[in-house]
Amino acid sequence: MAALYGCAGRKENTQETSQVKTESRAYDDVHEMFESPEEIPAAHSLLGLRLGRKYFVDIWDQEPYGKIKEYGKNILLIHGDRDSIVPVAYSDRLAETVDNVEYHVIKGGGQTTAIWETILNWQCLISRHFWIETKRKKEKRWQNENKTIR
Q1: How does DSSP classify residue 14?
Q2: What is the largest CA-CA distance in the chain?
Q3: Lowest-confidence range among 9-13, 38-42, 69-73, 108-112?
Q4: Which residue from 86, 93, 112 is spatially nearest to 29, judged by alpha carbons?
Q5: Are strands 101-106 and 17-19 parallel, antiparallel or unpaired?
Q6: Burial readout 85-121 (b: 16 or more C-beta within 10 A, e: otherwise)
């Protein structure tokens, strides 16, 4: 989701796919740990890492779902149902929040190891997604070029 979040600020130069990352979980965790940015200490642990106050303060206002919704392009969202770092519920929420999402849950897929076992499925999904998007763009371009003037 981090890559999608970053793409939202650079819509014209990005593709429509990304891998969900930990930022959405980190945003929620920070808001559960602290009631306001003023309560954030000089250093604190998150997901097993010791991080400085600046990290937590910077992430405080970076609500990922709204920002990704602004992206506006079609999104291919893939998440493993055995991901031990980012629960699939985060992708479920994104799929419900954002329009133009093609969402696939990889059964048995985790954050890393199990996902590699399903990489061929990913390649098929990604290829299909880009084929459909390319076809839609060509059809739209053809329609725009062949409009009759009345």
Answers
A1: -
A2: 67
A3: 9-13
A4: 86
A5: unpaired
A6: ebebebbeebbeebeebbebebeebbbeebbeebeee
Q: Report CA-CA distances (Å) from 18 to 52, 114, 130.
A: 27, 18, 13
Q: What is the pLDDT of residues 10-56, one digit of tens each?
A: 445 444 444 445 567 778 888 999 999 999 999 998 778 888 999 89
CA distances to 18, 55, 125, 139 from 87, rounded to whole Å, are 16, 22, 21, 38
User: Which range among 25-39, 61-75, 95-109, 121-135 has the greatest average pLDDT?
Assistant: 25-39
- Bridge partners for 52 per DSSP: 43
Tokens for 82, please give them.
């055995």
136-145, long-range: CB < 8 A, 24+ apart: none
Query: CA–CA separation, 55 vs 23, rounded Å?
Result: 11
Q: Which of 7, 13, 140 is nearest to 76 (CA)?
A: 7
Tally of CB atoms within 10 A around 37: 14
Residue 113: the pLDDT is: 47
